[in-house]
Design goal:
The complex is a heterodimer of chains A (317) and B (160). In chain A, helix 3 runs antiparallel to helix 5. Chain A has a six-stranded antiparallel sheet, with no helix packed on it. A six-stranded antiparallel β-barrel of chain A has the order 6-7-8-11-10-9. Chain A is α+β, with helices and mostly antiparallel strands. Chain A has six helices and twelve strands. Among the domains of chain A are: 55 residues, no CATH class; 154 residues, Thrombin, subunit H (Beta Barrel), CATH 2.40.10. Chain B has a single domain, classed as Arp2/3 complex 21 kDa subunit ARPC3 (Orthogonal Bundle). Helices cover 74% and strands 0% of the residues of chain B. Chain B has six helices and no strands. Classes of the chains: A alpha+beta (317), B mainly alpha (160). Chains A and B meet through helix 1 and helix 2 of A and helix 1, helix 2, helix 3, helix 4 and helix 5 of B.
Chain lengths: 317, 160
């Protein structure tokens, strides 16, 4: 039972009438929503308000961070040792692959230089850690601890060690909001590594599943195919893994096949992600090819085109 | 009288701030959808007990801060908060005479209104999530109301 207090509403002199206050505040709220949603007018206001709530977000994150530190510093010797051994093994393997990769990258750069086409390879990365803050159980968004002060910008690509993670949707002074590729509102252009088929992967709201709604039944895609980023749209760097196809269901009567894929990035387990800066690929990529036959000699041109050009333009449609 | 009203004001804001913090504390996945709207429940409690101090502006600001904290469209929670606060103000004289279970039922109706406004504005801004589990906080909030009322009464008695 709620207790009565002596500060009940007085019958006389109660200030502005309740209905008027309500109307004014409701209209203000709606105006705010329209301004925020349709016109992006509120970047600065949002900036101030975010600065005001930043301490709260840090305070919520702090106990989890301290707990992480504690468990780390009291981890027992044998576990650290086994972890160390495993990491050394993985590093050896990675170094081996890197040697081959370095040679390939050189070759690739030479070929691309020939075509005057930059690849959109990641140039600079910044490690950001995800704050332990729940934004909304029904949206796949996270808050990272780097913001405008660190040069983060809206639309920046976010990766983790295994693949593409998401992109920045809102930048505050010291934090930024990242939408995951599994969010139901997110779509990303993909390309099959095996067949070169291009399509679009849409988030489903389930962190283990992306869906490819626009793959025709007769297209060349099968379970186990790796989907990589194309670099189209200029948001994501090209050539990074996104997902692995898990299911392709073809119904001869339908136009599109039902295709599911599992993201390679560890969307629900990661604590650390990479913010990426890269040179976006030129938007007019076919242009150099059309001018090339006039300047380059006949022998090198087909070779360069077959290696460096996006191999998908043929089979995609 | 003046001083006690000041400590009360502090108490209002501290309880809402606690509710806001609890709104973004990470919960285990299975518990996440049940997260009650503690900030709104705190606002409701103060509106029912002392409506002269806990006005509509207080509810609106609390909602606005929730918008910023959760990165939603600005004004979305603010609108829902102010509507619920308005309804609570209209019925507060009757509502605080209710026995506690009856009161929890009324709170459930108010929470349903709150979540309907959020659902509706979510749809308008294109973020619609239509799963049934988005209505779970209505239930958990109503179940929690007796505890909130008891805790609030204790707090208010201490502050006096």
């Amino acid at each position: 039972m709620v207790e009565l207090s002596h500060e009940t509403r007085p019958i006389i002199g109660r200030g502005p009438p309740l209905g008027a206050t309500f109307l004014a505040l409701a209209i203000t709220s709606i105006a705010l929503m329209v301004a925020d949603q349709r016109y992006d007018q509120l970047e600065r206001v949002r900036g101030w308000l975010s600065a005001a709530v930043y301490p709260v977000q840090v305070a919520v994150d702090l106990p989890f961070r301290i707990w992480g530190r504690l468990t780390e510093s009291f981890a027992d010797r044998s576990r650290l040792r086994s972890e160390n051994l495993e990491l050394t093994a993985r590093l050896r393997l990675a170094n081996l692959q890197l040697q081959r990769f370095a040679a390939l990258e050189d070759e690739n750069r030479r070929l691309r230089d020939m075509r005057e086409n930059s690849a959109g390879v990641a140039e600079r990365v910044l490690v950001a850690s995800i704050l332990n803050v729940d934004l909304d159980p029904f949206r796949h968004r996270v808050l990272v601890d780097k913001g405008a002060a660190h040069g983060v910008f809206k639309g920046q690509a976010v990766l983790d060690a295994e693949g593409i993670f998401g992109q920045v949707t809102q930048v505050h002074a010291r934090t930024a909001e990242v939408i995951l590729i599994s969010d139901a509102e997110h779509a990303i252009p993909v390309q099959s590594n095996r067949s070169g088929l291009r399509s679009i992967a849409v988030g489903t709201g389930d962190s283990d599943r992306l869906s490819l709604p626009f793959v025709t039944v007769e297209s060349d895609l099968k379970a186990g195919d790796l989907l990589i980023s194309t670099g189209m749209g200029g948001v994501f760097p090209s050539g990074y893994p996104i997902a692995e196809v898990t299911r392709v269901e073809r119904d001869a009567a339908a136009t599109f096949a039902v295709v599911d894929a599992r993201p390679t990035a560890r969307l629900d387990r990661d604590r650390e992600v990479l913010l990426v800066w890269f040179d976006p690929p030129p938007t007019d990529s076919p242009a150099p090819v059309s001018t090339e036959p006039a300047t380059a000699d006949e022998a090198t041109e087909p070779a360069a085109a077959s290696t460096a050009a996006p191999p998908a333009t043929g089979p995609a449609q | 009288m003046r001083a006690s009203s000041l400590t009360r004001r502090l108490l209002y804001w501290a309880s809402v701030a606690a509710g806001l913090v609890l709104a973004i504390v990470p919960l285990p996945d299975w518990l996440g959808p049940f997260r009650p709207d503690l900030a709104l429940l705190a606002v409701l409690y103060w509106i029912l007990t002392s409506p002269r101090i806990a006005g509509l502006g207080y509810a609106w600001l609390a909602g606005l801060f929730l918008d910023v904290l959760r990165g939603m469209t600005l004004g979305q929670h603010a609108l829902a908060f102010v509507l619920v606060a308005f309804l609570a103000h209209r019925v507060q004289l009757r509502m605080r005479m209710f026995p506690i279970l009856h009161q929890a039922g009324a709170v459930m109706v108010l929470l349903a209104v709150y979540h309907f406004v959020l659902f509706w504005t979510d749809g308008l801004t294109g973020h619609g999530y239509t799963g049934w589990d988005r209505w779970l906080p209505v239930l958990s909030g109503a179940l929690l109301w007796p505890l909130i009322a008891a805790g609030g009464d204790t707090l208010a008695r201490r502050a006096r």
